[in-house]
C-alpha cells in the first residue's frame, strides 16, 4: 500500500477589509518569519510572497495537520510578528481564504506566480488575480473560498472588492 504524503497547497490569505496592512518596510522580514514559523510547526514552505493586502503561500502540507490549523498558525504568527515590530503595526486577517491543491507538475508555475506578485499587481487587482487563478484551475467541483471552519463559500456568496 502506498501512502500519499505529498500534498501541495497554494493559499491566499487576504487582509481584513482589503486594507494595505502589509507594509513594504517589513514585508520581507515578515515573509522570512512566516517561513521559519511554518518550519517550526513541521510545515514545508516552498514559496511565500505578499502584496500590500494579501499573502500567498505555496507549501507542502504536513499530512497530520489540517489546512485550517496551518492557516490559523500563519495568521496568528504573522499578527504577533506585526505587533512585535511596532505598536503602530497591526494586521488583521479576513476569515476567508483560498486553498488550491497543486499537482507536482504545476509546482514551478505556481511558485513563479507567487514570486511575481509585484508585477502581477501593477495591472491586476486581487479579485482579477483570483478570478484568473480559478479559471486556470482544472477542478471537477466548484471552487470557492473556505472560511476558518472549512465551509465552502461559493463565488456568488462573496465579493473581494
Explain the overall architecture:
37% of the residues lie in helices and 24% in strands. With 161 residues, the chain is an alpha+beta fold. The strands form two sheets. A four-stranded antiparallel beta sheet has the order 2-3-1-4, with helices on both faces. A two-stranded antiparallel ribbon has the order 5-6. Strand 5 (145-146) and strand 6 (152-153) form a beta hairpin. The radius of gyration is 15 Å and the shape is globular. The termini are far apart. The model is unreliable at 139-144 and 146-161 (pLDDT under 50).
Write a brief caption for the model.
With 161 residues, this protein is α+β, with helices and mostly antiparallel strands. The protein has helices at residues 24-40, 67-85, 107-115, 117-120, 126-136, and strands spanning 7-15, 44-51, 54-61, 93-102, 145-146, 152-153. It is globular.
Write the layout of secondary structure elements.
Layout: E1 7-15, H1 24-40, E2 44-51, E3 54-61, H2 67-85, E4 93-102, H3 107-115, H4 117-120, H5 126-136, E5 145-146, E6 152-153
Antiparallel strand pairs: 1-3, 1-4, 2-3, 5-6
Search tags:
161 residues, alpha+beta, Alpha-Beta Plaits, 5 helices
Largest sheet: 4 strands, antiparallel
Average pLDDT confidence is 80
- N- and C-termini, Cα separation: 47 Å
Q: How does CATH name the architecture?
A: 2-Layer Sandwich
Shape, principal axes of CA atoms: globular
Gyration radius over CA: 15 Å
Beta-strand percentage range = 15-25%
- The CATH class name reads Alpha Beta
